[in-house]
Amino acid sequence: MSTTGATDRGGRPALTSAHQLAAVAQALFVERGFEQTSVDDIAAAAGVSRRTFFRYFSTKADVLWVESPTEIATFRRLLDEAPATEPWRHAIIRTAPTALHHPPEERTWMLHRAQLLLTVPAVQEKAALRHDEWRRIATAFVARRRDTDEGDLVAIAAGHATLAATLGAHEYWIAHSDQDLPDLHGRFLDLLLPAD
Amino acid sequence: MSTTGATDRGGRPALTSAHQLAAVAQALFVERGFEQTSVDDIAAAAGVSRRTFFRYFSTKADVLWVESPTEIATFRRLLDEAPATEPWRHAIIRTAPTALHHPPEERTWMLHRAQLLLTVPAVQEKAALRHDEWRRIATAFVARRRDTDEGDLVAIAAGHATLAATLGAHEYWIAHSDQDLPDLHGRFLDLLLPAD
DNA sequence: TCGACTTTTGACACACCGTGTCATAACCTG
DNA sequence: CAGGTTATGACACGGTGTGTCAAAAGTCGA
């Protein structure tokens, strides 16, 4: 979370960081649009070369998912830690909104991110892989709880429902940003998850 | 469906057609992989220039959605024609599988298509736009039936549920291709659509 | 202080995607 | 045969993402 448990084994110090690049890039996206911003622009604004950008992110759009590995890992961990007595439906409704929760000071950042994600087609495309990962976590969890494999019909349905609820909650939130995202998320999950 | 109500206003006859290009392209995708197939390869195999390919399809992946406009239009039409007495939940469960229905002789073609769609990341990405359109049709329909706008929470949820069910059914079908896709589709819809 | 090691960086070069432009080919009708 | 119409091919261009390699800028040990 905070600073580096990284062991310093010498070598040239980095000129930038993933988070700094992400901040610079997202600011440019918001300001002049995603497709109107080239990787050259981002690199120049961050004071590094284009090649360096691609060492931090394998795709231009990837800067929007800097937090994603953390969120994904949190979701997986929370489900792993869910008490065996808790029904899987309840566990998902409880953990999914928590995994995506961010402190209030990151709210406008999140809102901008969500708007880019749901509005810009080129960005929406790149979301597919992340969505898949998110979905698979839920599917695997439900399969475990139901003592089946990941080919289980209900588990597959639950996975897709989890993703659908997450996207739906964000879509609704964009238009009603005064409301509480985790709360909305829970309501969508309750509406869409199949019966236990 | 079958041949051309197109008025012939003269001009040079086309060397190829969207369907022929799509067939050639999908065959190459299945044979050697999507990313291992360049547009140059497709064009060469079809006997036209690269530029011509992009006049028929605006993206390499678009060949996989030749049938999409028809399916989308059918879904929209079927919902428009649904009797006002039919509950919206039932109407979606009835019409969505029908709109995606294809004659048996196109089965292997559909199976290949579905496998590419759910397996190859680069293809999955391009699906986002089509999925959005599919989802919006359901959302708009539910909003109409509930006398609300497309910002309605239940309508949004129903839209995402419709898409989730469609994807889930295809995913399940890939692993159990002996079963009936429309039937699976209906079961997923029944499982995921929120209560009326 | 000097040299060996490690890591980050920048400079090129390259394949591919998708777009704009323009001349040419191949059909129609009068 | 002339003029209109449509499809095509050739070419150039900006952008993305990748591979390669030499140079920069630190660390540590002798």
Could you explain the architecture of this structure?
2 copies of one chain form a homodimer. With 196 residues, chain A is an all-alpha fold. The first copy, chain A, folds into 2 domains: 18-63, Arc Repressor Mutant, subunit A (Orthogonal Bundle); 67-192, Tetracycline Repressor, domain 2 (Orthogonal Bundle), CATH 1.10.357. Helices cover 65% and strands 0% of the residues of chain A. Chain A contains 10 helices and no strands. Chain A has helices spanning 18-32, 39-46, 50-56, 68-81, 88-99, 107-119, 121-126, 128-145, 153-175, 181-192. Chain A is globular. At the A-B interface, helix 7, helix 8, helix 9 and helix 10 of A face helix 7, helix 8 and helix 9 of B. Chain A binds a DNA duplex (30 and 30 nucleotides) through residues 8-15, 38-40, 48-52, 54-55, 58-60.
> Oligomer, anyone?
homodimer
Largest sheet of chain A at a glance?
A: none
Compute the number of helices of chain A: 10
CATH architecture of the largest domain in chain A: Orthogonal Bundle
Radius of gyration of chain A: 19 Å
Succession of helices and strands of chain A: HHHHHHHHHH
